[in-house]
Each structure stands twice: as C-alpha cells, then as structure tokens.
Amino acid sequence: MTDRYDLAVVGAGIVGLGHAAAAMERGLKVVVVDRATAITGATVRNFGHIGTSAHVGEAREYAERARELWLRYAPRAGFWLREPGTLVVARTEEERAVLAEAAEGVALSGEDVMHRVPITGAVAGAYLPRDVQVDPRSAAPALAGYLQRRGVEFRWRTAALGVEPGALHTSRGEIAASAIVLAVNVDVDHLFPEIAEEHGIVRCGLDMMLADGVGLGIPLLTGSSMLRYSAFARTDAAAALRRRFEAEAPEMLSRDVNQMYTERPDGTLVIGDTHYRGTTITPFQDEAAFELLARLARELFDGKAIRIRQRWQGVYASAPRDFLRAAPMDGVRVVSVTTGIGMTTGLGLAESVVAELF
C-alpha cells in the first residue's frame, strides 16, 4: 500500500463514476477499480434517458441533481447530450386517466402527439420538458476519460477481493483509502451476500434492440411505462390501467414490458424492453420477446417496417426499494440503484454518498 487515496471506488459504471466525479470535484485523491477492461455493463446497455419527471420522492431528488451534473459534464467531457424532454403517449382512456391524475408536464391532445411524432392511435399525451438524453454507448466512457484527465486513477482488469476499514484488497494488491465505495451494480452479492439477501437484491435481465430510426427525435414512453415509473404508477388510475393490460395484453405483464423508445445521435432507434428476475439470469434469450417488441413498434409507428440492427441483454440490480445504501463498516459504503433508473439518478445518488463520507 505505497499510495494512499481519499476514496477508492469499485465499479466503473455510472454510479461508480458518479462517486469518482463528486470526490474529484472536492479535490480528493481518487482511484477507480474495475475487473473489466472497459465499460460494458448496464451503463452502456440502456436508453440513455434521463427521465427526471417520471419519478417522485427520493428518486426525484437524485434525478434532479443528476440532471444538473449531466449538463455540467457533457461539455467538459465532450459527449453528446440534448434536452428534448420526453413525450408520454396515451392510446386508451385508462392511459389518458393516468396522465390526467399524475398531472406531470404539459397536457397534449392526441392530435398534438401525432403531430409531433410519427405514431398512430394517440388519444392524449404529456410533454415532460425537463428530461435529458445522452448516448449510453459514449457518455460514460467519455466521462471516465475526462475524470482520468483530471487526475482520477483507473485500474482496469483489477478485481476487488475484499474490504476492511482503510484497505481494499484487489487481485493486483492492496489499496489504502480513507473511504471505499463498492458500486458494482448487482454483483454486491459477490462481496457482501448478506447485504444482498437482507435488501432482497436479485438480478434483472432485459431484452433490447436497435433498429433503423423512424424520425422520432424525442424519448417516447407509453402506457406500459406508466405502470413502471412512480410519478404515474402511484396514481389511483394506474390500477384500472393494469386491469386493462391483464385482460387485453397479458403478455405485456408476464414479460414485464416497458414499451419505450429513444433515438441515438446517428438516428438509430433503441427499442425496449422486457424484464425477468432471479439470482441467476440465463444467457439464453427468448426470441418471442424480441418478436413482441418488434410487433409493438410496428403497431405504434403506423405499420412502418422495423429493420433490426442489433439485439442485446442487459442485467441490473433489482430490489423492492429504489436504492441500496449500506454501511457494513466504518468508511465503507455499498451503493446501487436497484430499479433500473441508474442513468437517471446515479450521479445524484453518488454525490449524496460522497457528501456523507466527506
């Protein structure tokens, strides 16, 4: 332990990078350890949607702060970011009722929605102006590069083997640090299985696709999104919406679909996503899930042919609560976003943890 750091971070996903950035801004000496050689996990396998307005409570607080940080770091790190807001489309009366009760953003008529985006069947909508979008495949790597240029040390291909107050044990030796944060997404059970079990953390697998663009230009949420995001799911009207899905589209619920779309800077369309959970996630993806996602896209975008370019599986931490913040010992924190909203909230959560530690 020849070098001593103020903060050692395990995990170079967006939550880990958020801790490194918050510490760097405080003038602290920081090292980031990751067992991979690049950022390839959930941080690059998502929609790139910073959905501030879709959440309430603690998640909303972290999302609002994360939004400020994304806007700060985009010009400094040189990654693509835009502020298009989000469009939430209602295609049934039950969905219209959820939007009306939630009262988030600017209410739109169905005609307004279909004038803005190339979809069919809208009866109402809501425009959420504060939402931000980044390209998930480039934003975090660019942020890591910026942090490295600012003095944060990265030790890739280095696995964390154990931790005690003041010392992180790794596959390349020990690291002395005043504080240690483990931001390893679902893999918290590798080092702290008792914490994972206590908080009900399991793995959530998901299926996503990339297709030719349709000229969307703005992130798009649908009725199934309303059942997932707290600003809408907390409404009384959401119960009637769920009953309609149960009666008319049970596969949407059995596959836990969030029918959602974003377009990347090159115009390609990110399509998602299904969800399935367990302590272990099978690597064998069900083609029927992709067929369902493609069919939903064709129906929404007025029968337009959807040419698929890529398919992939994501895996992230899932638990009954939105966030894991555990302190197993002095100066050590175990941190994870446990509801699939890491891009939206991770930077804000991390800043809060660093403020607590220092």
How do you describe this structure in short?
With 358 residues, this protein is α+β, with helices and mostly antiparallel strands. Helix content is 36%, strand content 30%.
Describe the structure.
- With 358 residues, the protein is α+β, with helices and mostly antiparallel strands.
- It has a single domain, classed as FAD/NAD(P)-binding domain.
- Helices cover 36% and strands 30% of the residues.
- It is built from 13 helices and 19 strands.
- The strands form two sheets. It has a 16-stranded mixed sheet that branches.
- Helix 1 links the parallel strand 1 and strand 2 (30-33).
- The chain starts with a strand and ends with a helix.
- The model has no long low-confidence stretch (mean pLDDT 97).
